[in-house]
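Repro case for the chain-ordering regression, as requested:
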Amino acid sequence: MRTTEAAARERIAGALRTEADDIADRWVQLQLARAASGDGVGESALREEADALLGALLAGLEGDLPVDRVFTGHQALRQAVSDLSLRRARNGVTPTVTSLAVMALKEALMEAVQRQTRDGDELFAASVLTNRLLDTAGALSFETYVDGREEIIRRQSRQLLEVSTPVVRLWRQVLAVPLIGTLDTARTQVVMENLLEAIQEHEALVAIIDITGVPTVDTAVAQHLMQTVNAVRLMGSDCVISGIRPPIAQTIAQLGIDLSTILTRATLADALATAIRLTDAAPALTGPGTER
Amino acid sequence: MTGAGESGGTTVLGDAERRAANGEAAARPVTYAVRSEQDLLTVRHAVRAATRRAGFSIVDQTRVVTAASELARNAYVHGGGGALTIDYPTRRDAVGLRLTVTDDGPGIDDVPTALADGYTTGNGLGHGLGGARRLMDEFDIRTEVGGGTTVTATRWAVR
Amino acid sequence: MSSPPATGVPILRLGDVLVTGLLNELDDEAALRFTSELMERIATEGARGVLIDISRLEIIDSFVARTLMELTTTARLLGARVIVAGMRPPVAITLAELGLQLTGVETALNAEQGMAALGWHQSPAPPGEVRHDRRR
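-- result from build under test --
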């Protein structure tokens, strides 16, 4: 068993040593033929990819890693598979096409081995080994592909979070955050961070949170609003919530959410008028426990 | 500092390979004793340093140090002392910091109540459990009446 | 006027206001000693206001929060109004997430605004005159 495996490994390595160019050509052709719709990676890029991967594969096979860990354990080979998958992920190629691309290498490799030997046993052993090798490569490519897509999604949602929570200065010592969309935990954390830093920077006495653009207020959203208001008050500033539309006010009442400790106004204009009055009154008379 | 408590070396091979591939040194778990008020300060410093090392934002640093302070104080006041272990789990998309706080105290007989209490008031010591849970992403309590308590809490920082 | 500081935390007096600050390195016992020392000073010096600067505090856990709340209540019973000033944004966020609202504790953005709330105003007039106004 061991000897057959070692022989088969050497057989494949031999094919790579002598026919690397042909294998690479064939692999590129197979990929182009299968992704007829055009998958965003050009022929020359495919060829470059193939050369890099086949070179690393040969080095991997000549090394002493066991077959099942050649792809995952060999640094350069792992990198080559990663590059291949990430490039496809970024170009919007589907994961199926991506793993098929890796699988097509099986065919290209086996054809080369066939040209070298006609012995049935040897071909069978080489085929088993090729399958084992490239199945791990397929799994690895799928994993990297998913990583790549997730990274893009994460980056985009972070960017979205940043641009969707601007803090604007409306008046001397009065800031406002117009919220658009829903208020989940991650969003609340970003809002609090941006708002509190701006409060410190501008020595703002009043922060207005405008929820005109928030479609619904449920218990969770209300809790997140309360949390933000509490943080603002702990800093020593006051908080006004504006833009509570009638249907939302009704929902809040029906849910029995208690916002009575929070200053609320129907419109941003009303809130600004209130805020200016507050800043004109005695300074720094705010705090969680202050009754007014 | 002191090697009290066990620190399970549970590094998965895949993780180690990934770390090696990313050029990160595998950080080993470290355990600190929580047996005196001075220890509470020491633990806070250690956790702060660990959060910096994990590359946490200043707000995340504050969350984790505060949670550690609550948990360590719980172990000290209610558990009659114990230990806090810091380690660094990894996930595909995030680096984490995990606090494991153990004590050999009387245990908690009603975990839901222990978690719910002290939400609005700081009425009495040792009600920071629920608060600590809100500050961390993952939270787990293992307790047995008469058998001590182990709290495991992790916060992740998305890369 | 008072016994030597037991905690090493200085408590200064400006007119009828006591000004002090909290540091990170305060352990529980020192925090309690600080509280009793501050209450002693309020009583013996007849202070009407207390400004506690917490801008150096990197965390506030439930113990420190409770200390601040108790201190505020006790001071109020002794006739003094407490203002806690300069909480850092990450500390405020963490406290809010912990669910601690510091009920009853008045806060100010910084020491200056806290002092203003206690009746001290920045004024172009020489300090002596301001002082004169404040004297009872």
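Ordering looks correct now. Helices of chain C lie at 28-45, 62-77, 89-98, 111-117, 127-134.
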